[in-house]
Amino acid sequence: MARPLKPQTPLAERLIRARGAMRRTEAANRLKTHPVTLGSYERGAALPTAEVLIAMREVYDVSLDWLLAGVGEMRQRPGAPPEVTPDRRRLRSALRAFVDAVASHPAMLDRTPDDLADWIVRGYDWLGSLTSEGHDGETLHPPLKEA
């Protein structure tokens, strides 16, 4: 388990905020750096290279002005939809399969609110398993079992 970060600089605090809920290992992979190196940036023990900062701008969708100096808006394009990455494409495909399943089984919507909520939670869990395990190129089959 990763050590909790104690940012020592305002830049380090912004780096952590920019990464958000993304795991450090995933962020490091996408930034093409090592998780320990990313941790040193996020503690303020080292400064990111120009290449890493440019990658952070793209991966985290943040403004370099905000990231480096705390100036302006955090997001590059406030209100703009995030870039469609392979992870987002897979999630979008999974959500589409779930919506299509709902549309093809309208009787599920006639359930009690509690039954429908349970079914949606199962769908949410199913989506989480897809994003954590990865299912590129596979046909997706959402859970349609009744409660």
From TrEMBL:
Stored SUPFAM superfamilies: lambda repressor-like DNA-binding domains
InterPro entries: Cro/C1-type_HTH, Lambda_DNA-bd_dom_sf
GO MF term list: DNA binding
Xref: Gene3D superfamilies: lambda repressor-like DNA-binding domains
Pfam families: HTH_3
Location of the HTH cro/C1-type domain: 25-67
Official protein name in the record: Transcriptional regulator with XRE-family HTH domain
Species this chain originates from: Nitrospirillum iridis
